[in-house]
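Q: Got a minute? One more chain.
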Amino acid sequence: MRFFIPLVLAGIFVAPAPPAHASGDLKATLARLDVAAAQFHTTTADFEFQSVQTEPVPDSDLQKGVVYYRREGASFQMGVHIDDVDGQPIPKIITCCADGRVELYDIKPNQLTILNKLSQYESWFMLGFGASGKELAARWNITDDGPEKVDGVTTEKLEMVAKDPAVRRIFAKVTLWMDLERGISLKQIFNEDPSHYRVCTYTNIKMNQPLPRDAFTIKTNRQTAVVNR
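A: Always. Here it is, folded:
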């Protein structure tokens, strides 16, 4: 299975019931995300990312760990700490740096891969975590499917198709289940094509609390192999 760079985070938290609005009211949904984005600073959550292939040979893998997000104005950072892959301790760290670089560190083989040309896809990483309704609408064609429960929490189900053709070549569609009170997604499905998709779910969310010092830090040494792409 291909190495998955996650885009978004969230958790399970029973928030106060949101004001009622019509099912599929996209304008009202985006307005509420604008309000939530103004209060978004940091997020920590446990995650499970499951990648599924149905053809030509059925296959899947499951990654578990902890993810961190921080946004300060236009500055955005993400740190994904993978602890477990298919039940095995295979630690990896992914960071989205403030300058637009993405770094992937495989700890056991001690290899750091630096992706220098991903800044144009920053909206991927913010998708569902701190992005305002205006920011989402600027980059995605959105269909509001109305409210739906996720682990007992009322969310708004949004189907997203990227306006950028380069993004659509990677993900044909993204489906988000958004907690509109906090402006975060509790679940996402990324459809690459009819035979490949990824399901992301999140628990144990903590918002606007201090993050660990190493949330966005990768510690290498003299023996680390560095690959630039």
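A: The first strand starts at residue 42 and ends at 53.
Q: Perfect, thanks.
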